[in-house]
Amino acid sequence: MSDANTAALQKLTAHINSVFLGKPEAVELTLVCLLAEGHLLIEDVPGIGKTLLAKALARSLNCSFHRVQFTPDLLPSDLTGTSVYHQPTGEFIFRQGPIFANVILADEINRATPRTQSALLEAMAEQQVSADGKTLALERPFMVIATQNPFEFEGTYPLPENQLDRFALRLRIGYPTRQYEKDILTQHREGEPVDKLMPVVQREELLAVQTSVRQVRVDESLADYMLGIVEKTRERDDVYLGVGTRGALAFYRTAQALAFLKGRNYVTPDDIKRLAIPVLGHRIVSKTLRRGGGEQDAGDAVVKEILTQVPVPL
Are the C-beta atoms of residues 283 and 163 closer than 8 Å to each other? Predict the structure, then answer.
């Protein structure tokens, strides 16, 4: 790991933590997702900083950023773009939608209809958009950060399993401590600190770091450990759907990213245990507990139990 990469990640982490107070674990997982070239689902109650975290990351990078407020009347073309008639030339010109950016904030993604939600699928999986009979590539880096409130059901459309599987990580932030909440009140007295953030990492620097992450060593015994955890999710009698190969790949890449963020060129068992729930939990469909309401932790509970059953390699 080069000194330049270390310095870039330290600057990025400190920059985000300066406005997103008291939640270093959430910032760490967000950066892990970014380095692993994955997409992030932030799922929590209103008013605890989901949008703030996404904006802080985007403003800290010298990359293009678009925020889309998902609503029931949002159309797929509102995301991908549409053709408009150009009168001087008498031709139709494709006008790109907000999905053509490096970082996309899909705010309250579960408020849009399934048709609009599915417009994200191709972009998230293939980093391309099909429109007007053409396939348009999306510029790297490309990251979707989606937010949703798991406790509100009026006027919402739960994300289908195939779309949930596109998110490398699901993150829950939680309430801040009293002291940090007091600091937040003071910090926001004269406006939004996130609006004053300036980029500290250039696009080329980020692409170089993402390439370096792929070189982090994963011992064969640790790869088997990850696959052992994944296979257990498929063998349980209380599970309809276990983790697929896409989930296993996300597990592998995020483990590399966490090790890199910690300044190591090798993965440890602790990296894998740290990421098991945020990477695998939302990919599991339980027979006994439905996803949603107070039961959305069903997949997390399954992964937590599996971690006690699969032997940790020495």
Answer: no
Structure confidence by residue, pLDDT tens digits, 96-143: 889 999 999 999 998 888 888 888 888 898 888 887 777 888 999 999
Query: By CB neighbour count within 10 A (0-12 exposed, 13-18 middle, 19+ buried), where does 11 fall?
Result: middle
pLDDT digits (tens, 9 = 90+) for 149-165: 877 666 678 888 888 89
Bridge partners, residue 137, by sequence: 128
Strand partners, 84: 93
Number of residues that make up the chain: 314
Report the predicted TM-score, pTM, of the whole model to 2 decimal places: 0.90
- Cβ distance 144 to 107 under 8 Å? no
Task: Say if residue 141 is preceded by a cis peptide, omega within 30 of 0.
Answer: yes
